[in-house]
Amino acid sequence: MTKTDKYKSLLPQIAALVEGESDMIAKMANAAAALHEAFGFWWTGFYRVVEDELVLGPFQGPLACIRIPFGRGVCGTAWQRGETVIVPDVHAFAGHIACSSASNSEIVVPLFRNGTVIAVLDIDSTDYATFDDTDRCYLEQMLAFMTKG
Ligand code: SME
User: Fold this and answer.
1) Is residue 17 within 8 Å of residue 29, measured between CB atoms?
2) pLDDT tens-digit series, residues 85-113
3) How far apart are CA 122 and CA 128, in angstroms?
4) For the segment 58-88, what is each residue's pLDDT rounded down to a tens digit?
5) 4, 77, 88, 118: most buried, per Cβ within 10 A?
């Protein structure tokens, strides 16, 4: 199964899981679990915008750092830019926050509500260059329907 096939089968499942549910924490929890299980990523989870920081939300994988300032690390950079950040080699990203030494590549996708970033989805891989525009495209679609309803 290609990456595209996996996303095409997963997206309707995640849409069904979150449909009609208004609680963002619950939706984040199921979305992280579904993605993590389907792809076998190293770490899959959300950081929520709480005042001037990102705070750890629902995730699957090893323990992670709890608070990330605006503009710091890959997560804080995606929040600051308001756009997806793909990092093929985290060791080459200035300011990368290493929650785990096993992580080698990463994608961070902002989750918007009414044009404002309210959280980011962070996925880490132990392989280099795991993420590309296919991941960006499907993950952005997935997050868009998480803020409906
Ligand atoms: N590497 C992230 C921090 C979060 S952990 O990877 C779960 C960053 O640089 O923002």
Assistant:
1) no
2) 999 999 999 999 998 889 999 999 999 99
3) 15
4) 999 999 999 999 999 999 999 999 999 999 9
5) 77
Domain edges within the chain = 3-146
41 in contact with ligand 1, CB cutoff 6 A: no
Radius of gyration of the chain (CA): 14
Burial of 93 (0-12, 13-18, 19+ CB in 10 A): middle
**In CATH, what number does 3-146 get?**
3.30.450.40
In the numeric block, the tokens 């996996």 are attached to 6
Q: What pTM was estimated for this model as a whole?
A: 0.97
Name residue 46's beta-bridge partners.
Answer: 121
* Cβ of 79 below 6 Å from ligand 1: no
Distance 96 CA to ligand 1 centre (A): 7
- Output the CA torsion 149→66→42→6 (10° steps): 10
Query: Which protein residue's CA is at the shortest distance from atom 7 of ligand 1?
Result: 64
Cα–Cα distance between 104 and 119 in angstroms, integer?
22
